User: Fold Deoxyribodipyrimidine photo-lyase from Methylobacterium soli.
Amino acid sequence: MAIQAGRIRILNDVAPRAEGAYVLYLLQQANRAHFNPALEFAIEEGHRLGLPVVACFGLLDGKSGFPEANARHYAFLLQGLADAKAGLEQRGVAFVMRKMSPAAICLDLARRAALVVLDRGYLAIQKRWYGEISAGVDTRLVQIEGDVVVPVEVASGKHEYAARTLRPKLHRIWEEYIQPLAPRRVSHAAATLGLASEIDVTDPDAVLAGMSLDRTVPPVKRFRGGEREARARLEAYLAGPFADYGSDRNRPEAGAASHMSPYLHFGQISPVEIALAVRAAQAGGAEDKAAYLEEVIVRRELAMNHVFYTEGYDAFARAVPEWARKTLAEHASDPRPRTYTEAELAEGRTHDRYWNAAQAEMRETGYMHNHLRMYWGKKILEWSPSPEEGFARTLRLNNRYFLDGRDPNSFTNVAWVYGLHDRPWARRKIFGTVRYQSENSLRKFDAKSYLRTVEDLCAAEA
Assistant:
């Protein structure tokens, strides 16, 4: 299938450099060798120009590293990059990885490139990298969106109020984008270019050991990175637990979640590939499929819309809507029956054993079910000395322990706790008219069974 025109952005509209030695692809968000529109576009252009294709990745660590990333995140990332390297080289695409920023490696290798291709992400740091590259590249520069189903600006030209306002816009056009992507054939080998990597990512554990980073949050055993692992998990999920997704998706103990979010966050699987697989699944009915597509497309792309159109999406004053900030301020001095320090929250030392279990699952395994994430966040607001501090704590804990932390979904979900994409509800202490979530919400699932599940999961990480 052709790559949809809506995915393609020309950032520097000049002819490819005539003396260029290769087509360069900055593989930074879409860390995979298959079902990757940016890679397939680069391969198409390489064939057209009679040139090999080089993919590159810039690895940051130390003080210049990706904000808030730690050993847990880097281990998963490196496992995925080892998989991507193997897949790229098997296809005849060279892979170059160096210890420098994505912008720096791209600008360095672009000096010999006829054409430069970027993939796309919507976070502020990614926009900054793309801006640096756009300012410094003097040949043709093209950006291809491959990590949402419908590109953000195609879906909507403004910040959407809620899922109900974005949903019909996506539904009207998503069939054009939920299409297969056939792998292109690489026609010119890259082996003779003589480009060297500073990092041999075939041994991700060795690379991780040599990095300067926060090791207080260790890697997890529950999840391993890589596109092969992502596809294997998806295949097993669709053959079994997916059959009950429509009825069980809000029950954390039921095992109905697909656990695709870390793989989506690191670009190790395409959301379009997931959507196609869900539609084709033998298990599950129309309700299950519709509910899953709602989550992987509408809800996920609402988060992309939020961070793209909100400058300061990680700040309480910018991310939380005015009505919610106002009502929270009116109740900021309300007595808190209980407050906890951030350390107590991180260690799960509260009076609420179900909240503590959810925190333990996140802290030890890097994951928490979405239903519990909502309860977890609302309680941090209730137990913090102020709304602003609650917001900051929630975001810090979220980004520190979740494998899919530091993601548009993370920033959006935390802001939702404080009123984003929601409406005023009945007024109550501390929350004002921001939605409250009580312990009664735990009655919707078998909370005691969930406790046992968490105990087993944490024991497996020990």
